Automatic annotation (TrEMBL):
Residues 4-224 form the ABC transporter domain. The lineage of its organism: Bacteria, Bacillati, Bacillota, Bacilli, Bacillales. It comes from the Bacteria. Coiled coil: none annotated. Pfam families: ABC_tran. This is Peptide ABC transporter ATP-binding protein. One of its GO terms (cellular component) is membrane protein complex. Keywords: ATP-binding, Nucleotide-binding, Transport. GO terms for molecular function: ATP binding; ATP hydrolysis activity; transmembrane transporter activity.
């Protein structure tokens, strides 16, 4: 079974009298070690899909399994544990805590796990090194550039060794050079065995992925 399996999945938003069919009959699977781009025009359903894959929302119809687990069958606390253990999130505008330094920010996803304090620090330092930020570990977010902050966000997404990394426009807020650097970092992670799904409008990013899933009006129109 693939790491991610989506079958006949639909998402319908109900607001008062209105129904919006944000996703219609989606089928897709993602294997371990793939880097997959999700593209499509504004309002096509990309975020709705990413939210379901990230267990932040549930589908209205159909089936989703992550590592053979069906998130829709879990309680809220089980779901929170699954998210914490299996998924690393990277957003366009990273949400580092301003009063925490780099090392403290990167350790955050580990605080809900039963891991010794000294081990947490070591795990965080390892991923901080991986993204080339070891000399900045004591700095606070406001002392870093946008690209450096995004590298810290990537380290934080990685620290718990999640099964999958979900990235929403990870280079969208960066200048071209910094964006290329961050993209290179994500590619290195995939080369080392990580699985990444990236929502992007950027052709340079999607062209570097193994596969592009294009969504239009809630339907997959290409998966190549
Ligand atoms: N909470 C909600 N309630 C009602 N409709 C929603 C909600 N969230 C999204 N939608 C609608 O679902 C459709 C898909 O939205 P979605 O945000 O998934 O698109 P998107 O491809 O991520 O767009 P963008 O690229 O602009 O971020 C749109 O028609 C949107 O208006």
């Amino acid at each position: 079974m693939a790491l991610i399996e989506v079958q006949n999945l639909s998402k319908i938003y109900r607001n008062c009298e209105n129904l919006t069919y944000a996703l219609k009959n989606i089928h897709m699977s993602v294997e371990q070690g793939e880097m997959v781009a999700i593209t499509g025009p504004s309002g096509s359903g990309k975020s709705s899909l990413l939210n379901i894959l990230g267990c932040l929302d549930v589908q209205s119809e159909g089936k989703y399994t992550l590592n053979s687990v069906s998130p829709q069958q879990l309680s809220r606390s089980q779901l929170a544990q699954l998210r914490n253990r299996e998924i690393g999130f990277i957003f366009q505008h990273n949400i580092l805590l301003s009063t925490y330094n780099v090392l403290e920010n990167v350790q955050l996803p580990l605080q809900y796990r039963k891991i010794r304090k000294s081990d947490r620090k070591e795990m965080a330092l390892n991923v901080i090194k991986l993204v080339g930020m070891e000399s900045q570990a004591k700095k606070y977010p406001h002392q870093l550039s946008g690209g450096q902050q995004q590298r810290v966000a990537i380290a934080r997404a990685l620290v718990g060794t999640p099964s999958i990394i979900l990235a929403d426009e990870p280079t969208g807020a960066l200048d071209q050079n910094t964006g290329r650097h961050v993209l290179g970092l994500l590619k290195n992670l995939v080369d080392a065995g990580s699985t990444i799904i990236i929502v992007t409008h950027d052709h340079e990013v999607s062209s570097q992925c193994n596969r592009i899933v294009k969504i239009v009006d809630g339907e997959i129109v290409a998966n190549i």
